[in-house]
Structure formats: C-alpha cells, structure tokens
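pasting for ref
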Amino acid sequence: MAMRMRGSLGLGIGLATWLAAAADHEVAWLDTVQRPPAFVAEHGHVLTPLLREEAGTLEDMRLDWEARRQGLRSRWLTFLGPLSRRHLAGGPAREAPRWSVLEEDRPNGVRRLLIRYAVESDQEVEAYLMFPGDGHSPRPGVVVFHSTVRQSILQPAGIEGEPEKAFGLRLAQQGYVTLSPRNFLWTANRSMDAAGQARRFLERHPGARGMDRMLLDGLVAVDVLASLPEVDSARLGCVGHSLGGKEALYLAAFDERIRATVSSEGGIGTRFSNWHDDWYLGPGIREAGFEREHHELLALVAPRAFLLIGGESADGDASWPFMDAALRIYRLYGPMARLGLFNHRQGHSVPPVAVERMEAWLRAYLR
C-alpha cells in the first residue's frame, strides 16, 4: 500500500492548516508548562545557539532558521547512520510494508491485532495494532513505544504490566488507532538482549548507531499507520515513556508527519541517562569533540506539538534549558508555542496526573 503524502515543514498549506485548527483547542494549562522552574541546577551541557540574533526581523530569523535547520538535520542523520537516512530519502512515494496477522482479540471494545512486518529485508518486527471498536473512520493514529520492561509490547497493549502504562490500549479505547512496535533489543516478548542485539546490529551496519535502528522502526511504524484507511494521516502522533520517550523524541524530530508528541522520562540531555550505551548513541558522545545536543532535536520538531514529562529522575527541572532553547525556535512560527515541560516530581513513574496530561495533549493537537 502506498504511503500518503507528508505535510511540508515551513508554513506550507498542510502545516498552516494544522496550526490554525490546533489554535481552537489549546490545552488550558499550556502557559504553566512554559514557565521556568524557580531553580535550575547546573547541567554541565553546552547548548550551542540555534539562531543568529543578527538575522534581522522575525521573518528574517525564521527564514534563516529554515536554512540552518536543513544542515542540522543532515548532520544528525549522518551521525546516526545509513538506515533511517536511506528510508527518509525514499520520500512520500515509498510504500508501507505488507503485514500479516498473528493473533486477534477484542478486549474492552477494542480490536487488537498482533501483526508482523519487515523493517529491513531480513529483519521483521512484531507490533500490536489496535482499533476503536465503533468502526468510525478515519481516526487519528498514534505510535506507542514501550519502555524497558520484560514483557515489551505486552505493556502498551494492556496484556501485562502496570495499567497506567497501557498507553496503546487506553488510547484505542478513546478513539485512536494505535501501533506499538517491539524494540529490536527484544528477541521476543519477555526476552531482552540489549548488548547482544546491539552488537549484532552494529556488525551488520558498521558506522550506524543503535538509535538509527530505533528511528527506522518508528518511521516504518508511521508508514504502516498512514497507509491504513481507518487512519487520518494528517493527524498522527507518538508517545513513549523511558526507552519509549527516547524513541518518541527522535521520531518527532525526523518525521514531519508526526503532529503531536509526548515523551516521558527519556532524559532530554545526553548526560541525563544512558544515551552513551551502544544500543543508543554509543560512547563517542562523551568524547570532547562531540558537538550535538538534544535541544537541536526539539528545535527540529518546531512548530509541531511536543510535551516533555519529567519526574526528577531522567527529566525534570534540569531539562528546562533545553526547552528554553527550543522555545526560541517555536516562537518564530507564531505566539502560541506548543512546547512544554511538565514535572510531576514522582520519579521514574507515570502517575495519573501524567497520564491525564498526555491524553489531554493528544486530544488538543490531534483533533
């Protein structure tokens, strides 16, 4: 099945229409997640400027950023490796992979399918695809990434694990079509082999990073969602917690079809969590010559909606400088910047208030 056309970045018709529609349904608490915390501890990062202040008027600065953005995006993709870069080069003409159904059931009014499809010619992925039970379409679609738990995709599908992290099932019950792919570090549900899987991947793709494969998995998941007749490809989002929060950040940055994102406790700074592991970005990010930081990825998301949720574990008040840097880019596109940091201060968890904020964010910006 052919994938539907992506919206352009800039202020093309597709994105301008989305911005106008989103303006009618802002979350009531947007201003509260854009206020700096009372105190921000030194985070040890050097965040390179994203704008040249001497560019002139606001319009001049936006045009300057659009030009600089392309180079920044290219440098990041070159660093990550060939897989996602090659996939993105296929453009809107690329096709979604064919998928087969392995299992099907209907819990709580939701049609839940376990499916399998290829992400590389010799590498397949299993995922839970869930549809609302009322049959109405087209619906908004959401890619839901699981966290680092033994049961992998059984968690977002609501089969095993903490109910509050069953994002895929919860959202399907609320009217979204959701797709939850299993991260490549799991050889099967309940079987994770991070070091071994990372080693095998890097042997197959010298020069790549583990996040290259994770980004590819996200891009293909969006391809699958966007190809479904039940899904409105102009209303696509992604969510994830911890490991899944990392994947959500990268997918939002590099796939312009994603209109609304919630990333929970992934660690926005490269020193905030284990980004240096081989299955993410590798130990080279701790070397003196490494110049990239994740405020750049937040800026690549602009002006699409992005909510960072922290609990003072991987993310929290120390994440604010990254948000502040990216807000400067968001405000080039208009006064209503749909970027925010919500800190629930309950550690590396997903308390009810975080779930409520996630669901409200998607309701507002995937309408």
